[in-house]
Amino acid sequence: MVTHAGPAGPPRLTRDEFGALYRSLLARAAWAAGDRGALDAITPARVLAAAREVRTGRTVTLAAPVETLPGPDNPEPARHRMSGQREGDDTASGLHFAMDSFAMNVHGDADSHIDALCHVIYDGTLHGGVPASSVTAGGATALSIEAAHNGIVGRGVLLDIPRLRGVPWLEPGDHVTADDLTAAETAQQVRVAEGDLLFVRVGHRRRRAERGAWHAASTRAGLHPSALEFLADRRVAVLGGDGNNDTAPSSTEGVDFPVHVLAIHAMGLHLLDYLQFEDLAPLCEAQRRWSFLCVIAPLRLPDATGSPVNPIAVL
Amino acid sequence: MVTHAGPAGPPRLTRDEFGALYRSLLARAAWAAGDRGALDAITPARVLAAAREVRTGRTVTLAAPVETLPGPDNPEPARHRMSGQREGDDTASGLHFAMDSFAMNVHGDADSHIDALCHVIYDGTLHGGVPASSVTAGGATALSIEAAHNGIVGRGVLLDIPRLRGVPWLEPGDHVTADDLTAAETAQQVRVAEGDLLFVRVGHRRRRAERGAWHAASTRAGLHPSALEFLADRRVAVLGGDGNNDTAPSSTEGVDFPVHVLAIHAMGLHLLDYLQFEDLAPLCEAQRRWSFLCVIAPLRLPDATGSPVNPIAVL
Amino acid sequence: MVTHAGPAGPPRLTRDEFGALYRSLLARAAWAAGDRGALDAITPARVLAAAREVRTGRTVTLAAPVETLPGPDNPEPARHRMSGQREGDDTASGLHFAMDSFAMNVHGDADSHIDALCHVIYDGTLHGGVPASSVTAGGATALSIEAAHNGIVGRGVLLDIPRLRGVPWLEPGDHVTADDLTAAETAQQVRVAEGDLLFVRVGHRRRRAERGAWHAASTRAGLHPSALEFLADRRVAVLGGDGNNDTAPSSTEGVDFPVHVLAIHAMGLHLLDYLQFEDLAPLCEAQRRWSFLCVIAPLRLPDATGSPVNPIAVL
Amino acid sequence: MVTHAGPAGPPRLTRDEFGALYRSLLARAAWAAGDRGALDAITPARVLAAAREVRTGRTVTLAAPVETLPGPDNPEPARHRMSGQREGDDTASGLHFAMDSFAMNVHGDADSHIDALCHVIYDGTLHGGVPASSVTAGGATALSIEAAHNGIVGRGVLLDIPRLRGVPWLEPGDHVTADDLTAAETAQQVRVAEGDLLFVRVGHRRRRAERGAWHAASTRAGLHPSALEFLADRRVAVLGGDGNNDTAPSSTEGVDFPVHVLAIHAMGLHLLDYLQFEDLAPLCEAQRRWSFLCVIAPLRLPDATGSPVNPIAVL
């Protein structure tokens, strides 16, 4: 286990250490090698148990509003265009339709989205050894987001690291370790279990709201690669964060997004990036309960590498 | 009540009869005149009760895959573009990211979507008397889809009209009456109640799958306007269909989309168009149960008139 | 169900029986765990229906005059001070302003008031698991009376227990059971429903008027804790009484105010104590109708644990 | 009629003009000379009709939060004191009560309150010729707020003057004329009628929120005395404003609060000062309807010259 050292001294991983960690996680997640990856841990019995987590009937979004203005972390924002009336409107009756269209990148650094298992190409393959050639200009013929077309429904658990450390947010460059995750479990009196949808809050959204956006591609708080050992032990089905999940700069020699590689490629985890937990966290605090029913419903974009999403927590 | 007449002779409504129906529904749905419309009927107690509908933990999509090929009912299909690698990828490490972007109209005649309350402009106002001027080229400043940003979570009920009539689908131009809805309740031994998410199957998707797409703008099966009296009596919170919900040609003199006007503008109902129930219906049949937990999670598109959606049923 | 036994032998609850009752009510009222508690049951549709309860346009207060003289049940009465003229009055014009100020405890044993959800601290938390630390010398930072700042408007129902039993009032120490409440419903031909504002008359005010005040802290008529099962079954939004709602001495081993703990802490019910129904009851009798529109408008006291109120019934 | 002249040149009234206006209004309001003043215009039939104004079941406060910090318009703010546990708490059971007390002036320049008819002493009498000697250090023995102990329930009408003029608020010193009121009626398509509760918005609260508080005793927007002719014509039952109703400086030679004198003393109108309409106005705008059921429930303070209030509008 890596112990927390703070922004000053994040433990660096050499290329060899990263390789060893990759192989260790790959072996421990062998059960998740199928085309739905770790989603296979979500059995009907677990969905039924997750529904029993609903105690008050409160619902809350885990997404931020889609942003249409450019910013340092959003050079190509989503475009929203009103398309006025629809052909054949019966204007005589005083009836018109307000219509619109929109266009967006799936994997931007501002909008809440889910990464499909085909998102990461590493050493010539996708997760589970699927050839990289399965991804073409026409789209992904394997491991696309369609793997989640029936929704991802399960028990969500929020681990709040700024709460654990008594700070409003983790500063960019800081990282979350496996020890942080177990300490948050103790502080919140919750235990992450097999098939859970794990959400780790670093406070990225709160800092962005209070301090304004910055070039997140250069500096971000996130998980240290070694923290994924905790996820492998617990066999979580999904990982989501209010940042990108990966820190910037990278803590690993020669690998820009080690958490993406380990989580998606080795462990078969669908990743959710840039969610927001500022609405959820106060509800959990008030109910002293950090587990809930969670429903993630990606759009059925064909052959897509991911989708914008609006995960809903039901407490 | 209008009795079923079949495609041969759907009862026509004169402009005066439509006006009287509009005023009657407006008065009966006055409680839903707020900016969330009929969603106000979904109390925490009802969300909690809906979670108790989960019996087997099976989840299923109510959306069809987004279509990217043009067709007679989809002249401007969604565009999906692979955007290759991300700037600054560490190719030395053999790491690449499969990325993509997409663009789509919200209110097409092929893709599953939800209509916000601002979608319908009728006689110079939106639902609840909001001035039409609130919808500009910049977007909708009132009654946008953001009203549902915390998701629409409640008890879903599927009423299957082709099942009731013993046919594979309703033929284009045919319509569903209030009597059909009450007869389906009896046949399925379910009763629609206040705050339910009501889904009415006409078989549009199945016919399209077996016969191929056609110019749905000209001829479609849907609800007869008078059927909305059933929805007003039961105070449902949402209406969804596998077609457009409105029939084509219109059954009302001088009004092209009478169900859209009555449901959205008078009753404050969010409408879901072009869903698909071909995965859900067999599950309901097998469990002899047509009610379930349902979660609708629109994207948080700013100032938008609706959103593509992937509603999830949990049985 | 506990059957009525009269002052002679009220059924005692052991600490374990109380704990079991607490847990049962907590589970059944889980939908009311939010920061507005059971007020969430009052939907716009119910407010609209409540307005339809007005038949004659008669209005009547459910409050007693604020008392400024000390008494056995009012050792620290409200203070009312005339403050004479205002600075800068134009006396030349013969214009003066009669001014005053007043000071009062919110939770006295004589004045009509409403208890906010933060009023009860039990085992270290407030309602819904909110930490007791949210109540400080500066006020309540959560669950304050501001939760009702838009007023509590709904259908009021008066259940008159002395009327049921054919007595002028219940003697101090006597208690009202769930069976009494259902029997009163039958006798008055009214049925308490979800979202109702329930008022239970024990005759405390009438006895006080005829016999004079006594040390109510020692002996009072009120509800037996088990009667709250009736309220949980019916999902009422508010409970009000002409006494303290709790009996004295307590019917529960080691818990002084079991009804306050169960109603406020477990069920999220705002409680109204020391109302008066001596004006309302004769109007209900004359109209043979015990349901009415009721409006409760607490003062917007910041961070307060309650407020003096003057609930108005409109028949 | 006085036509609007703007802050630059408000028409001044000489002492003689004021006297003539006083006598004219006194004569026209002779019907309101009783101890309930103009409240007599609120008949049960009008209360019943007012209840029919409820269309959507929305409720909203017309009060501002009570302020406990001193400011230029609030030198003696309300005091709120937490009073900790109640005597005899059973701490053994882990049960405590959060308690508090408060003290406030009724007629401050910051808190929403109602003026009783005894508030104004003019030329040795109160409204209706009641001797001023009825007001003593002990309180008011006539025309106290107890006149409204059963609540003031009727049809509320909001006339929004800044909306009429297309400005966010009227600047301090500006005044509202009878022409403004009739023009607002036309613009809002509503007509003030006998027995209505009339609320006139000048934007005082919005300016205070956006610009910060100021010494309102020196400069305030309000009604021009001549505007009361409109109220006499329509026989309104109550007048409320988001400011003090009177302008400052006074528009009348030698009379500091001419509107208070004319409305309370001559016309028998209960006045509500320093309400807030910032929550109500947008609801009216959205529903295109400026009339509603309104309930004002003063505390039953004995012999008091007024009361803090939280008027509730039900739309």
Offer a few descriptive terms.
homotetramer, 315 residues, alpha/beta, nine-stranded mixed sheet, disordered N terminus
Structural class determined from secondary elements of chain A: alpha/beta
**Strand residues, percent of chain A:** 15-25%
Distance between the termini of chain A: 33 Å
Flag low-confidence runs of chain A.
1-8, 85-92
Enumerate the strands of the largest sheet of chain A in spatial order, edge to edge or round the barrel: 1-17-15-9-11-13-14-5-16
Number of strands of chain A: 17
Residue-averaged pLDDT of chain A, rounded? 91
Form type of chain A: globular
Helix content of chain A: 10-25%
Biggest pleated sheet of chain A: 9 strands, mixed
SSE series of chain A: HHEEEEEEEEEHEHEHEHEHEHEEE
Largest interface: A-B, 96 and 95 residues
Oligomerization state: homotetramer
How many separate helices of chain A? 8
Q: What is the C-alpha radius of gyration of chain A, as a whole number of Å?
A: 20 Å
Write the layout of secondary structure elements.
The structure is a homotetramer of 315-residue chains.
Chain A: H1 15-28, H2 44-51, E1 59-61, E2 79-84, E3 95-97, E4 99-105, E5 113-115, E6 120-122, E7 135-136, E8 139-140, E9 152-160, H3 161-165, E10 175-176, H4 178-188, E11 197-201, H5 204-211, E12 222-223, H6 228-234, E13 238-241, H7 258-266, E14 270-273, H8 280-287, E15 291-296, E16 306-308, E17 312-314
Parallel strand pairs in A: 9-11, 10-12, 11-13, 13-14
Antiparallel strand pairs in A: 1-17, 2-4, 5-14, 5-16, 7-8, 9-15, 15-17
